[in-house]
């Protein structure tokens, strides 16, 4: 039995004993004499304080806000998603074509831009260990910042035109996005549909 439970039981026993004992009449006791009618209140105050202490949530330590990290060899799911140690991790602040997405290159030839993005990310990682830390987004969607050594993998994907900055989540990679567009790299060399817009249209048509 915990110490707090023991104390509460003692208070309860005192209250029962006080209520059950006969009280003296007002005429038997001076007006300022502490009597049994004051005892229950005196006991209830600390008891209620104990209960309040039990119900109050513990203070959150400041270090709990520190980002969680995961490291290890990575498996590429698509151009914006990795799997490390059985955990599927979405790269923060970017979006890449789905594996089944097709785009057009600079010569108006169709190619699998989704598979090209995944292949580029896998080649960049090779067999090296990747370190990722959890990031919270403004819209509530969590993602991860993944690094290969000192290099930000999301920044690399956007800078080379294999992915685009996801402005609905973050503005972190808008500069890389503009430079890739200006140099007509990757997706920007031809014609493509924004991955998020493509998913939205497919979802809308599926609901018809």
From TrEMBL:
**Domain TNase-like positions:** 68-190
Matching SUPFAM superfamilies, A to Z? Staphylococcal nuclease
Q: InterPro entries annotated for this entry?
A: SNase_OB-fold_sf, Staphylococal_nuclease_OB-fold
- Give the matching Gene3D superfamilies: 2.40.50.90
From the Swiss-Prot or TrEMBL record, give the protein name. Thermonuclease family protein
Q: Which organism is it from?
A: Methylorubrum podarium
């Amino acid at each position: 039995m915990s110490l707090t439970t023991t104390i509460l039981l003692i208070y309860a026993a005192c209250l029962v004993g006080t209520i059950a004992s006969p009280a003296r009449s007002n005429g038997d006791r001076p007006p300022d004499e502490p009597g049994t009618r004051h005892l229950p209140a005196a006991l209830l105050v600390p008891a209620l304080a104990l209960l309040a202490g039990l119900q109050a949530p513990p203070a959150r330590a400041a270090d709990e806000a520190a980002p969680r990290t995961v490291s290890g060899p990575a498996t590429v799911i698509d151009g914006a998603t990795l799997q490390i140690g059985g955990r599927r991790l979405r790269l923060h602040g970017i979006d890449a074509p789905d594996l089944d997405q097709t785009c057009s290159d600079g010569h108006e030839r169709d190619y699998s831009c989704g598979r090209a993005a995944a292949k580029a990310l896998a080649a960049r990682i090779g067999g090296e260990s990747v370190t990722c830390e959890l990031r919270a987004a403004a819209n509530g969607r969590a993602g991860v910042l993944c690094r290969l050594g000192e290099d930000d993998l999301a920044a690399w994907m956007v800078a080379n035109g294999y992915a685009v900055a996801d402005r609905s989540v973050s503005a972190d990679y808008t500069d890389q996005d503009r430079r890739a567009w200006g140099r007509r790299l990757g997706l920007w060399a031809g014609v493509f549909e924004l991955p998020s817009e493509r998913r939205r249209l497919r979802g809308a048509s599926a609901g018809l």
